[in-house]
Specification:
With 340 residues, the protein is of the alpha/beta class. Helices cover 40% and strands 22% of the residues. The chain folds into two domains: 220 residues, Alpha-Beta Complex (Spore Coat Polysaccharide Biosynthesis Protein SpsA, Chain A), CATH 3.90.550; 78 residues, no CATH class. It has twelve helices and 14 strands. Helix 2 links the parallel strand 2 and strand 3.
């Protein structure tokens, strides 16, 4: 069995592969590590370019774009390794980025996943939106990070250079124990893209594992490489998948209250989009809710499956506040102001 498999999911990302794949190989070479590019049905010639230029990289060609969740599920199911490192194609790794992650996983068998410090490729002294210095959710399922709360992204001054337990590790770069991945079922493909890693990490917690942030490993993320942050489709996925996430994983004693309040908050968000004249984003929220209702039958079955994983676990990595209220009403726009 291979120890560590670095799996880069690609969809028409030839430009990013040309920029970053060589660096990944350079800083990840050892006898226990292999690099894979899983191609989600690209039409830009990227899998052929990888095969022609990097004989030491294994290309896994998928028949079509299965999304982030489906693409990774199909790729890792073809790899026998102790650890999977899921790495976005638009990431620049640094010297010694991999070893701290692997060493931490080796020393902590109760940890299902961890992530490095994720900084912005375009503003390298600032955190990047998708991951920053460890990830959490609030009581209503809104994700945030140490270093990024809603739209506020902080400068990295070393303020979060501590190894901590977190709620979820970023899909931009996460190392996952294959044993935990298999036990918890991998990504939910109905998410397609966005928040599937949060859903998986919630299941990790329910199965008795921890999730952690490792500050000794640093990478730089371009962000928005496949789907722009302002895309209405991205808005749709985030709102729909938030409801999927809560329905599947909320404990029974919070289920109805939290879902009801979250729906009200989504309604306020749609109204705000309308006030801005952003009709497409308002429609995206509406469509997200309609598709959530259509999926309820399947979600009920998934909720039953998730309950089978449950052990008693601490919810201290779930913020018992609303970051929407904290951010927009109270003006608390940093991780430290939220938790202190």
């Amino acid at each position: 069995m291979l120890k560590t498999a670095i799996v880069i999911l690609n969809w028409n990302g030839l430009g990013f592969l040309k920029m970053f794949l060589g660096t990944v190989i350079k800083y990840s070479q050892d006898n226990e590590t292999a690099v894979f590019v899983a191609d989600n049905g690209s039409t830009d010639g990227s899998p052929e370019w990888v095969a022609d230029n990097f004989s030491n990289v294994t290309v896994i060609k998928l028949d079509k774009n299965h999304g982030f969740a489906g693409g990774y599920n199909r790729a890792v199911n073809q790899i026998d390794a102790t650890y999977f490192v899921l790495l976005n194609s638009d990431i620049e790794v640094t010297p010694n980025w991999l070893q701290p992650l692997v060493s931490f996983m080796d020393a902590n068998p109760d940890v299902a996943s961890c992530q490095p410090k994720i900084l912005s490729y375009n503003q390298k002294d600032h955190f990047e939106h998708a991951g920053a210095a460890g990830c959490f959710i609030d009581k209503y399922g809104y994700p945030f990070c140490r270093g990024r709360v809603i739209t506020k992204v902080e400068k990295d001054t070393g303020q979060y250079n501590t190894q901590i337990s977190v709620f979820w590790s970023s899909g931009a770069c996460m190392i996952v124990r294959s044993e935990a991945w298999n036990k918890c079922g991998g990504f939910d493909e109905d998410f397609f893209a966005h928040m599937e890693e949060i859903d998986l990490c919630w299941r990790f917690h329910k199965a008795g594992y921890r999730v952690c942030f490792i500050s000794d490993s640093v990478i730089y993320h371009v962000g928005g490489g496949t789907l722009s942050y302002s895309s209405p489709f991205k808005t749709y996925l985030n709102f729909r998948n938030s409801l999927f996430l809560l329905y599947k994983n909320l404990p029974d004693n919070k289920f109805y209250t939290i879902l009801f309040i979250r729906m009200l908050l989504d309604g306020l968000a749609a109204f705000y989009f309308l006030l801005q004249g952003n009709i497409r984003s308002a429609s995206a929220v509406w469509n997200a809710h309609m598709d959530y209702y259509k999926a309820l039958k399947k979600l009920r079955e998934k909720r039953k499956s998730v309950k089978k994983l449950e052990v008693t676990f601490s919810e201290k990595t779930i913020l018992n506040k609303s970051i929407v209220f904290e951010f927009y009403v109270k003006g608390n726009k940093t991780y430290k102001s939220l938790v202190l």
